[in-house]
Design goal:
331 residues; alpha+beta; Rossmann fold; six-stranded mixed beta sheet; five-stranded antiparallel beta sheet; 9 helices; 25% helix
């Protein structure tokens, strides 16, 4: 990332609320078998950003297509409504680390088979310095491939993902996302952007793993979550007025996780094509960074990314996907 200038506050664009290299390192069977037992959401793992800066993985779309060629001075970042300087800016030059987390329950098998058939094309969207890790999940997570820059090895592991795995009965989306983040945190430090791509039907019930807990973990690691969902998947319906829910049990909402971290959700009506498009889109994003503001540790601060007035004048109405905030670090 290159140091960024201090852009002035300008007219906002439309905002959508929404180098380490490796070799092929398949996860050993005993590692995969024990992972879900060793890692538990109830352990309350602590995720902290390893950088003094807050990274903001940002996507700019016009007519549904990624806008390329923007520069640091084209962006304005607001922290609690006040413009803050960009400390760094990058695009394309930044390496990318992608964790692929696939739901291998029966309802997703057809979709996953279609995606595995185009694994080579999907990996071709990445660069030689990028890294890919592959995991599958049901009730628990089973890592299949540690992060590697061997994109052919990653494609082969994606092709093997539809095979039956010992992931337990049922689907535990939030708990498995949390375990995946803990798995990522245990890997060697990575200097570039980090992305989690989840394949899910958005079904199931969570126990003591609400969305807020997952969003805090994602923010702490500067990870953007993107999702490919079953064609009929929908966000959970709000409770009827006056109804009370048990806070220990929550419904999955991958749509919210993607929106709050600045990611996208694709419907798997044409799963193969959507997988290729997703990998292309996660590569074509901007990497902004700001210095976090001081305050009580763990306090949430709202962020908004806009285009400068000059950029808005050139482009007109655009859609911006970026994380909606961060938690203040320890002093």
């Amino acid at each position: 990332m290159k140091p960024g200038p201090t852009p002035p506050a300008q007219t906002p664009a439309t905002h959508s609320a929404a180098a380490v290299t490796g070799t092929e390192r398949p996860v050993r069977p005993e590692q995969a078998e024990n992972w879900g037992n060793e890692q538990s959401a109830s352990q309350n793992p602590l995720f902290r950003s390893s950088s003094a800066l807050v990274r903001i993985d940002t996507q700019v779309l016009k007519g549904g297509q990624a806008v390329e060629g923007l520069k640091a001075e084209d962006f304005v970042v607001l922290d609690e409504g006040k413009p803050v300087p960009l400390e760094a800016f990058g695009r394309d030059s930044e390496p990318l680390q992608v964790a692929l987390l696939f739901d291998v329950s029966g309802s997703m098998n057809k979709v996953l088979v279609e995606m595995s058939a185009v694994a080579g094309r999907a990996m071709a969207a990445l660069k030689s310095e990028d890294q890919v890790g592959v995991l599958v999940f049901g009730r628990k997570v089973v890592p299949l491939l540690e992060f590697t820059s061997d994109l052919r090895a990653a494609a082969r592991m994606v092709q093997e993902a539809p095979l039956e795995r010992e992931v337990g009965a049922g689907t535990n989306l939030n708990g498995c996302v949390l375990d995946t983040l803990q798995w990522m945190a245990a890997q060697p430090e990575f200097p570039g952007r980090r992305v989690l791509v989840v394949l899910t039907d958005n079904h199931g019930i969570h126990y003591q793993t609400p969305d807020e807990k997952i969003l805090r973990a994602l923010a702490g690691m500067d990870v953007t979550l993107n999702a490919i969902v079953a064609p009929g998947a929908k966000p959970p319906k709000p409770l009827p007025k006056g109804a009370e829910a048990n806070p220990d049990f929550t419904q999955p909402n991958v749509f919210k996780l993607a929106e709050e971290t600045g990611g996208e959700v694709f419907r798997a009506d044409k799963a193969g094509a959507r997988f290729v498009e997703m990998m292309e889109r996660v590569r074509l994003r901007y990497d902004l960074a700001i210095r976090p503001q001081t305050g009580p540790e763990g306090a949430f601060r709202h962020l908004e990314v806009r285009l400068s007035e000059a950029a808005r004048g050139r482009l007109g109405k655009v859609e911006i996907n970026a994380r909606t905030g961060y938690y203040t670090p320890a002093p």
